[in-house]
Amino acid sequence: MKKGIVAAFSTIGVFCLTTGLSYPLLALILENRGTSTGLIGLNAAMTPLGIIVSSPFIPMLTRRIGAWFMCVASLCLAAVLLVMLGVFRDVMIWFPLRFLLGVANTVIFIISEAWINQLAEPGIRGRTIGLYNTIAAAGFALGPLALALIGSQGWPPFLVGVAGILMALPFVVMAREHLPEFNGKEKASVFSFFSLAPLLLLAVAAAALFDQVVMSLLPIYGLRHGATEATGSLMLTVLIVGNVLLQIPIGWLADRFSRRYLLSWLAFATVAGCILLVWWIEGSTLIWPMLFVWGAVAFGTYTIAMTDLGDRFSGALLLAGNSAFGVMWGLGGIIGPSVSGVAMDLMGPEGLPLTLGVTFAILGLVACWMSLSRVEREEVFSK
Fold first, then answer.
1. Are residues 207 and 294 in the same domain?
2. Which of 81, 90, 119, 232 is the most buried (most CB within 10 A)?
3. Which residue has the higher pLDDT, 11 or 289?
4. Rounded to 5 degrees, what angle do the CA atoms 210, 254, 332 make?
5. Residue 184 counted as domain residue
6. Would you place residue 373 in the very low, low, confident or very high pLDDT band (cuts 50, 70, 90)?
């Protein structure tokens, strides 16, 4: 069991570093060629589109082919696609390639998360999931740093990305006997989880929306309030570091308290962060500790959702749930930057905290409502 979890952690850590490198790499290459911002955005959207389209089919394919083979094949496919992205530098060819890269990424993340949840001991599941999200966030953070060191010119960044993916393969291959399959008799479609676990899916969508909005627009928010480019980038760095360091403590809380109450606390803490961002963006040093905590509590909603999923479901149902998470992550990733960008155009920079605040206020209220017993809900209606 321990070997299986270590293999899944190692695979995700190395793969997230490669993914964190490839996203800004492809954007920089297109920017340096004079590609329009709109076309760069559409091209980048192919990856989450691949996530949304492919996620519903993963449970069925895994039952037929096997989780281990699916993961290995997807790692190989991702490596081949990175090579092809380096060979074919035409933006129109990149559209189908990035779509397929989204498909490969989805399989790797969904199966790895299902493995980790299936193998985690119930008493420490929250801390295990917190460690997983810490490793994933650290990988995503180190990817851009690696790109800064090797540059975006020529083949070196692509070769580093391919090498990173190939480094993940031995972990999966050597731990094959310790990694579970999901061939149970239970059959659940991805879309059935909208009725089985609606709160968890809402939490995933909110976390994805936050992740994509702050990664793409937070530095711009800082610039529009008079911050320098360096300060805008530093804001994002502090937020990411907080996310990396605080997921294990959030997982510890998930092992000890009601998940629904904890989810509502994290959601409302994120709303408070949106308000404080507006107050402290211009000149207050308090913004730095706030950003450190803000990113952690917002993304902590994903840690809570994944922990609760593992406690409630197992086997084929767990895999279907993780696939449903993939659909919601893709939707949140596409909708978030689009809505926030429009809000910032119409209302100025405060459209960003407003979009995030409304999203997490809804999540917090829904979590509070679902925390009530049926009798308590009936009493609310009667009053």
1. yes
2. 81
3. 289
4. 20
5. no
6. low
Do 174 and 245 share a domain, yes or no? no
How far is C-alpha 383 from the geometric centre of its chain's CA atoms? 40
**What pTM was estimated for this model as a whole?**
0.85
Q: Are residues 53 and 152 in the same domain?
A: yes
Flag whether 377 is in a domain. no
The residue from 179, 203, 222 where one domain ends is: 179
Which residue among 179, 211, 244 closes a domain?
179
CB-based contact 118:312 (threshold 8 Å): no
Q: How many CA atoms lie within 13 A of 150 on its CB side?
A: 18
In this structure, is residue 383 part of a structural domain?
no
Query: What is the span of the domain harbouring residue 151?
Result: 1-179
Same-domain pairing of 346 and 236: yes
Nearest to 110 by CA among 265, 293, 279, 325: 325
The interaxial angle of helices 2-32 and 156-174, nearest 10 deg, is 160
119 and 233 within one domain? no
Looking at 313-350, list the stretches that DSSP marks H as alpha helix, in order from N- to C-terminal side.
315-347
Domain total of the chain: 2
Q: Please tell me whether residue 236 adopts helix, strand or coil conformation.
A: helix
> Which residue from 134, 114, 143 is spatially nearest to 8, judged by alpha carbons?
114
First to last CA, the chain: 51
* Amino acid at site 23: Y
Q: What is the pLDDT of residue 150?
A: 80
Q: Residue 216 is part of a domain; what is its CATH number? A: 1.20.1250.20
Query: Could you give the C-alpha distances from 315 to 197, 310, 318, 371, in angstroms and in order?
Result: 16, 10, 5, 26
On whether the CB atoms of residues 278 and 350 are closer than 8 A, the answer is: yes
The burial class, CB within 10 Å (0-12 / 13-18 / 19+), for 36 is exposed
Long-range contacts of 338-346 (CB under 8 A, 24+ apart): 340/213, 340/217, 341/217, 344/217, 344/220, 344/221, 344/224
User: Among candidates 186, 203, 371, 202, which has minimal Cα distance to 303?
Assistant: 203
pLDDT of 58 strictly over 50: yes
Does 288 share its domain with 196? yes
Residue 281 has pLDDT above 80, yes or no: yes
